[in-house]
Automatic annotation (TrEMBL):
One of its GO terms (molecular function) is hydrolase activity. It comes from Streptomyces bauhiniae. InterPro entries: DUF402, FomD-like_sf, Ntdp-like. The keyword Transcription does not apply. The lineage of its organism: Bacteria, Bacillati, Actinomycetota, Actinomycetes, Kitasatosporales. Residues 54-159 form the DUF402 domain. It comes from the Bacteria. This is DUF402 domain-containing protein. Keywords: Hydrolase.
Length: 165
């Protein structure tokens, strides 16, 4: 589904599903939908501050999020309230599904963080992914998830993620 000019100011609700349950849902402004990639912008939707040690997500942060219908990841550019680039948080997901005003994305536990200067590229939550049991239940999906993480890491280390989004 691609968006026409009347849809561009539309609000979407992003629904993040994990292990078959809705983890979080939040409103976002639709920036673009070309039929393959859906881009939205939303403020930090979490409660309060979340400090990962390598980055803090906090009220005032703005996320420009890119989801693909044909890729197993989402890339989220994270900026502080003053516009300073914090970096990119990448979720390994099943391909996104947009239905009307809902964008549903299934999180597969693996993540990648790339700092704003591109110097730090961190693979995250590989232990959670292993514990999820996806490899035993759906080996092809698990392989696609690992491949997506490898692809994003290679892109981040070679040329950064700016060209991807």
């Amino acid at each position: 589904m691609s968006a026409n000019s009347a849809d561009m100011a539309a609000e979407l609700e992003v629904v993040l599903v994990k292990a078959g349950r809705t983890k979080i849902r939040y409103p976002a402004t639709l920036l673009a939908d070309d039929g393959t990639r859906v881009s939205v912008r939303a403020p930090w939707a979490g409660e309060g501050v979340r400090d990962f040690g390598f980055v803090r997500f906090e009220p005032g942060d703005v996320f420009t999020e890119h989801y693909w219908r044909d890729r197993w990841y989402a890339v989220k550019e994270v900026r502080a309230g003053d516009g300073t680039l914090k970096g990119w948080y990448c979720d390994i997901t099943r391909p996104a599904v947009r239905s009307g005003a809902e964008l549903v994305v299934e999180d597969l536990d693996l993540d990648l963080w790339v700092s704003g200067d591109g110097k730090d590229v961190l693979r995250l939550d590989e232990d959670e992914f292993a514990a999820s049991g996806l490899a035993g239940r759906e080996p092809e999906a698990a392989a696609a998830a690992r491949s997506a993480l490898d692809e994003l890491e290679a892109l981040a280390r070679a040329e950064g993620l700016t060209g991807l989004v």
